[in-house]
């Protein structure tokens, strides 16, 4: 990706190669396609890490341990709860899901940003635990498209699909409280928009250090 700034200022390298310890929260109704988008992001954006959640549900076809989720028993999950190891957790359709508590100082020292895949209720909990996370809400083109996607993937019963659609209607009301809203109609376009959000936030949050770091270089080159 080319930037409008000259290489002499060092902006391009900063935004393309370095994270700065930011926390991005991606929320979306189930079936919107956020898993596909996150995988595309991880392949294209350096300095970005996905927070792998823990769950008590069984793996779905093609899901990998430690990549999609950490699959654990209810007893293991409960022990982690007692040790306060989750940033947030919830029960969904009888299964438990938990986001591990990140080491924010380590993320910053490693020049990595973290993206969390959690729902709107989890996002509210994270807001109480983490300063200034960036909230991104992913919308389906329509509820009809969402229903078709849920039916096509064949993972849920009709009863569960109705539950997910009902929850999606409620969650969409929460989108107004997010910093960014993206409609996932075309995967490639949605990935580009997500990349733009990350680059913009890195520039915005890191502007002081970028200017200070490059000021001396600019003065030296221009006398």
Would you mind describing this structure in some detail?
This protein has helices spanning 11-17, 34-44, 74-82, 104-109, 120-129, 143-153, 158-172, 187-205, 207-222; strands at residues 23-27, 48-50, 53-55, 69-71, 86-92, 95-100, 113-117, 134-139, 180-183. It has 223 residues and is an alpha/beta fold. The chain has two domains: 7-51 and 112-218, Rossmann fold, CATH 3.40.50.300; 52-101, Guanylate Kinase phosphate binding domain (2-Layer Sandwich). Strands 2-7-1-8-9 form a five-stranded parallel beta sheet, covered by helices on one side. Strands 4-3-6-5 form a four-stranded mixed beta sheet. Helix 1 packs across helix 8 (187-205), helix 2 (34-44) crosses helix 8 and helix 6 (143-153) runs antiparallel to helix 7 (158-172). It is globular. Mean pLDDT is 86; it is low at 1-9.
Could you write a compact summary of the structure shown?
With 223 residues, the protein is of the alpha/beta class. The chain is 47% helix and 19% strand. It is built from nine helices and nine strands.
CATH homologous superfamily heading of the largest domain: P-loop containing nucleotide triphosphate hydrolases
Mean pLDDT: 86
Pick out the low-confidence regions: 1-9
Distance between the termini: 31 Å
Net shape: globular
Radius of gyration, in angstroms, nearest whole number: 19 Å
CATH class of the largest domain: Alpha Beta
Q: What is the strand arrangement across the widest sheet? A: 2-7-1-8-9
Q: Roughly what percent helix? A: 40-55%
Q: Would you tell me the structural class of the helices and strands?
A: alpha/beta
How many β-strand stretches?
9
Strand content: 15-25%
Order of helices and strands: HEHEEEHEEHEHEHHEHH
> Which architecture of the largest domain would the CATH scheme give at its second level?
3-Layer(aba) Sandwich
What CATH calls the topology of the largest domain is: Rossmann fold
What is the count of helical runs?
9
Number of domains: 2
Largest sheet: 5 strands, parallel
